[in-house]
Amino acid sequence: MKRIVVGLSGGVDSSVAAYLLKEQGHDLIALFMVNWHERVGAITSSCTWEEDALIAKMVAKKLDIPFHIVDLSKDYKKRVVDYMFAEYQAGRTPNPDVLCNREIKFDTFMDEAMKFDADFVATGHYCRKSDIDVNGETIHQLLAGKDPNKDQSYFLCQLNQAQLSKAMFPIGELLKPEVREIARQQNLPTAERKDSQGICFVGKVDLPTFLQQQLEPKIGNVIEIAEKFMAPKKQVEISEENYKKLCFPYPYKPWNGEVIGEHQGAHFYTIGQRKGLNIGGYKEPLFVLGTDVNRNIIYVGEGKEHPGLFRQGLFISTENMHWIREDLNMKVGERRNFDIRIRYRQPLEKGSIHLKEEGAYFLFENEQRGITPGQFAAWYSGEELIGSGVIT
Fold first, then answer.
1. Cα 151 from chain centroid?
2. Residue 44 — pLDDT band, cuts 50, 70, 90?
3. Has residue 42 got a pLDDT over 60?
4. How many CB atoms lie within 10 A of CB 218?
5. What are the pLDDT digits (tens) for 216-258?
6. Among 214, 225, 241, 304, which residue's CB has the most CB atoms within a 10 Å radius?
7. What is the pLDDT of residues 267-323, one digit of tens each?
8. SS3 label, residue 302
9. 61: part of which helix (H) or strand (E)?
10. How many angstroms separate the Cα of 52 from the Cα of each of 14, 29, 293, 372?
11. Whole-angstrom Cα distance, residue 161 to residue 138?
12. Alpha helices, H only, 115-219
């Protein structure tokens, strides 16, 4: 029997995780974390943390386990929300869910859990953990969840061996419908509750309104890059001389296109974005191809197949490379094949990592749509997540 702190969120996944551990005979403690109090930019006033906490407490009572609340909102603001604002200000698009897991759930929250003399901390993530022996050392593997539609390993791509050593993922072997059915069979209060959406622990928000807490609107030009004016794409040889051509965003300039409208601030937009442009008169929708926060310009193109949306590769600087499997770390000059994901729920794509002094160049077998600076690229070997990094 182990003493396990389970992070109860008020959702069905963490509720079933707690139930399964209880059935296994572990000594359980339920801990609910408050990470956000404000409602600025909220699309709905429902599903506030107070309601979540009430539901989580009901689950704990149903399972007959102690229930506690911890307020981590100061750390969350400093380590997740302020980071978000800074990244958008710089013209990048961050992933707050990845940061929340690295900085809060498996760091600050884990520290709080250990105050209860816990052996492990359990969450309702759809992923798995396995331990292997490598040269006499225990290595913790982070594996994809069995449900291909719900696999959340990507969101944990920044965890390290110390964090994984204390982590448990009780529902990683289950499919979402199975989790729902267990909750119904046990009459858990969360059985029919909808999954949370939006920013991790902030909820569903109108992003521009949320960002305007710190980032002021600033009118700038929308410039269309017409497909017919783009240079035809040629097959570029994959060589060190061409790495930057293949792996860095195209450097659009104002004279590359035509001004077709105005926007409220380049830092409110992200590559591949369709909504929020409010420019009509086109046969196909417009998509953001690039942003320039220094000139306060956004570049757009017509149609989801516009060549400006596609790239052969991406770059991650040395300081932004993170290896979950440190024993598999590459050496400078080495090239290795991996399956790569550049956003949650994207199918894994075949590619290779070419490691140089300045960082890693990722080259895909097929061009990728909407590679976005600030997002995380994660690389896998089979079901195992090996490492990740912030896209330049």
1. 12
2. low
3. no
4. 13
5. 999 999 999 998 767 556 566 677 778 988 999 999 999 999 9
6. 225
7. 999 999 999 999 999 999 999 999 999 999 999 999 999 999 999 999 999 999 999
8. strand
9. helix 49-63
10. 12, 17, 37, 32
11. 10
12. 161-165, 176-185, 207-211
- Tokens representing 377 are 């690229």
What amino acid positions are annotated as catalytic residues?
100, 200
DSSP E strands, the chain: 3-7, 27-34, 67-71, 120-122, 127-134, 137-144, 167-168, 220-224, 258-263, 286-292, 297-302, 310-317, 321-323, 335-341, 349-356, 359-369, 376-381, 384-390
* CATH code assigned to 3-211: 3.40.50.620
User: In 230-383, which ranges are continuous DSSP H helix?
Assistant: 243-247
Amino acid making up residue 360: A
d(CA 160, CA 233): 40
Q: Which two tokens stand for residue 202?
A: 């902030």
Domain 220-309 has CATH 2.30.30.280: yes
Which pTM was predicted?
A: 0.93
Residue entry with tokens 């982590």? 167
Domain 310-390 has CATH 2.40.30.10: yes
Note the pLDDT of residue 346.
Answer: 94
Which residues make Cβ contacts (< 8 Å) with residue 194, sequence separation at least 6? none
Tokens 């551990």 found at: 21
Domain boundaries along the sequence of the chain:
3-211, 220-309, 310-390
Please list, in sequence order, all residues whose beta carbon lies within 8 angstroms of the beta carbon of residue 331, skipping any fewer than 6 positions away: 355
d(CA 286, CA 36): 34
| Whether the domain at 220-309 and the domain at 310-390 fall into the same CATH topology | no
Question: Residue 270 corresponds to which tokens in the numbers above?
Answer: 């992200």
The residues with which 28 forms a beta bridge, in sequence order, are 4
Mean pLDDT to the nearest integer, 384-391: 98
